[in-house]
Design goal:
With about 200 residues, the protein is of the alpha+beta class. The chain has helices at about 1-10, 60-70, 105, 110-115, 120-140, 140-145, 150-155, 160-165, 175-195; strands at about 20-25, 25-30, 45-55, 70-80, 90-95.
């Protein structure tokens, strides 16, 4: 447990959002618009700790790697605990179970083609393609960037700046700063293309 504690201490001050209302038995319950859980409903962030000995680590590494391959990993932190021959790596993985991936999965799929105007749906589709490209580059699930609902809101409201983007439910300063300029450029390009038609 000492290694796990040190790994937790190394996290940035805002690692556990103020909207993460509890932390019990390796879980953190986060509510709407938390920087680490951009969902409309509560989602349970899970934690799994591993102790990897400095020597004879093959079995422990295999167990950890199997776990990392089979789960949606949000972040991994590690800390070397030095204790002579008993030194080890303490590794803490933060992940989401497939059963809690997003409220979109919980409430079933939504046909945005029916909900949006033809023009807004065209823009929505382009934003969705951009999100997919970014997610593949960053090796993260697409909903970590923006949810479908947020993309639909962007397509409808067409924000002109980061401040307007932050007014969309679930998009905070962190997401806005990380992805905002890219999506605002896509909106601007779309508007320019529409003018030329």
């Amino acid at each position: 447990m000492q290694g796990t504690f040190l790994a937790l201490k190394k996290q940035p001050a805002n690692f556990f959002s103020s909207r993460c209302v509890s932390s019990v038995k390796n879980t953190v319950v986060c509510s709407e618009s938390s920087p680490i859980a951009p969902f409309k409903k509560e989602v349970i962030m899970q934690f799994k700790s591993f102790i990897i000995p400095v020597s004879n680590a093959a079995k422990s590494e295999a167990e950890m790697n199997a776990f990392l391959r089979s789960h949606k990993i949000i972040s991994v932190s590690k800390e070397l605990i030095t204790n002579g021959e008993n030194s080890f790596w303490s590794v803490l993985a933060q992940y989401i179970d497939d059963t809690t991936l997003s409220n979109e999965k919980l409430k079933g799929s939504i046909d945005y083609k029916e909900l949006l105007s033809k023009e807004d749906f065209t823009l929505f589709s382009q934003l969705r393609d951009l999100r997919k490209k970014i997610a593949e580059e960053q090796k993260v699930p697409v909903f970590v960037i923006f949810t479908n609902e947020q993309l639909a809101d962007i397509a409808q409201s067409k924000p002109k700046n980061l401040s307007a983007l932050c007014k969309i439910q679930g998009i905070g300063k962190g997401k806005s700063e990380k992805y905002g300029e890219t999506f605002l450029k896509a909106l601007n390009d779309y508007a320019e293309n529409e003018k030329e038609k």
